[in-house]
Structure formats: C-alpha cells, structure tokens
Amino acid sequence: SSYRQPILVALMLHMAQQFSGINGIFYYSTSIFQTAGISQPVYATIGVGAINTIFTALSVFLVEKAGRRSLFLIGMSGMFVCAIFMSVGLV
C-alpha cells in the first residue's frame, strides 16, 4: 500500500527516540545534575527543558532548508556519540 513507507519511517523515528534514552535522561536529569555537583539541579533541569523547546522550534524551520534525511542522519550520529559519553560518564 502507499502508506507502508511513511508508517515504517514513523516507526523507525519512534524507535530511534526510545533507543536514544532521552526519556530516561530527562526523567533522571535532576539526580544526574545533583550527582554531577550542580548546586541547584532543579534549575539545571528547567534549563535543559527550555533548551530542548528552543531547538525543537528551530528545527521546524531548519527542516525546510536542510531536508529531513540529512538532519535525521546528523541527529542520529550525534545521539550515538552522546549515548556513548553518557554511558561512560554514568558508569
């Protein structure tokens, strides 16, 4: 059917978000910042949320210029590198 490719792309994007671990990082961000020695970890968590919101809004405009595929591949590469650093840093 004509919906097969869009459905597969949507499923892959959802799986990529889940495998990136970002939900766990956001959930535990206050305790991560506290462990890192930040004096006010709640404000650091609010800052991370604000930065996430700002860059999500910017990505809407960037998708039109750079294209979805290239942004996806760059983002996945960045998430892979950051996941390695988070794994090493939290162990």
From TrEMBL:
Top-level division of the source organism's lineage: Eukaryota
GO cellular component labels: plasma membrane
Membrane topology: Multi-pass membrane protein
Chief place of localization: membrane
Gene3D superfamilies registered for this protein in UniProt: MFS general substrate transporter like domains (1.20.1250.20)
Annotated keywords: Cell membrane, Membrane, Sugar transport, Transmembrane, Transmembrane helix, Transport
InterPro entries assigned: GLUT (IPR045263), MFS_sugar_transport-like (IPR005828), MFS_trans_sf (IPR036259), Sugar_transporter_CS (IPR005829)
SUPFAM superfamilies: MFS general substrate transporter
GO molecular function: transmembrane transporter activity
TM ranges: 7-30, 42-63, 70-90
Compartments reported by the entry: Cell membrane
Signal peptide coordinates: none
Pfam families named among the record's database cross-references: Sugar_tr
UniProt-recorded name of the protein: Solute carrier family 2 member 2
Source organism: Sus scrofa (Pig)
Lineage per the UniProt record: Eukaryota, Metazoa, Chordata, Craniata, Vertebrata
Gene from which this protein is expressed: GLUT2
